[in-house]
């Protein structure tokens, strides 16, 4: 399995880097790889990866989730280019994407059964209320 470049690798910072170190690395790399400055055809792709890594690491909550995923060995792609739309808009929120994993065996049935039970209870409750309403009014419509 090929190794995935982490957000820390992309920015060239240590996993215990401070927000100031992350910000400084981002600014340095963004100036170097910005497509308006760098004529290299791969500069735009690299710039997007740098921007995505920065957005992931600069937010404390996102960084904590990202670090947890790294420690747990979860599959993710910190700069999945297939998720970008033309014009520079992202089709997903800043951070990282999870690789699709197969659900646990039978997980789909559990959700289906829960939905059936909830709907069944709602229907039974409506029938009981209807019967109580008729009993109170003597079957007359109000």
UniProtKB/TrEMBL annotation:
<dbReference type="InterPro" id="IPR050817">
    <property type="entry name" value="DjlA_DnaK_co-chaperone"/>
</dbReference>
<dbReference type="InterPro" id="IPR036869">
    <property type="entry name" value="J_dom_sf"/>
</dbReference>
<feature type="domain" description="J">
    <location>
        <begin position="6"/>
        <end position="70"/>
    </location>
</feature>
<dbReference type="InterPro" id="IPR018253">
    <property type="entry name" value="DnaJ_domain_CS"/>
</dbReference>
<dbReference type="InterPro" id="IPR001623">
    <property type="entry name" value="DnaJ_domain"/>
</dbReference>
<protein>
    <submittedName>
        <fullName>Heat shock protein DnaJ domain protein</fullName>
    </submittedName>
</protein>
<keyword id="KW-0472">Membrane</keyword>
<dbReference type="Pfam" id="PF00226">
    <property type="entry name" value="DnaJ"/>
</dbReference>
<keyword id="KW-0812">Transmembrane</keyword>
<keyword id="KW-0346">Stress response</keyword>
<feature type="transmembrane region" description="Helical">
    <location>
        <begin position="109"/>
        <end position="132"/>
    </location>
</feature>
<keyword id="KW-1133">Transmembrane helix</keyword>
């Amino acid at each position: 399995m090929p190794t995935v470049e982490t957000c820390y690798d992309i920015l060239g910072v240590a996993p215990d880097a401070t927000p100031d170190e992350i910000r400084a690395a981002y600014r340095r790399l963004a100036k170097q790889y910005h497509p308006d400055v760098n004529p290299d055809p791969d500069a735009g792709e690299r710039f997007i990866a740098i921007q995505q890594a920065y957005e992931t690491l600069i937010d404390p909550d996102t960084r904590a989730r990202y670090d947890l995923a790294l420690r747990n060995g979860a599959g993710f792609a910190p700069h999945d280019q297939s998720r970008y739309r033309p014009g520079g808009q992202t089709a997903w929120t800043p951070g990282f994407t999870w690789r699709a994993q197969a659900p646990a065996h039978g997980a789909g049935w559990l959700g289906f059964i829960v939905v059936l039970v909830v709907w069944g209870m709602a229907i039974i409750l409506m029938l009981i209320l209807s019967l109580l309403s008729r009993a109170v009014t003597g079957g007359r419509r109000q």
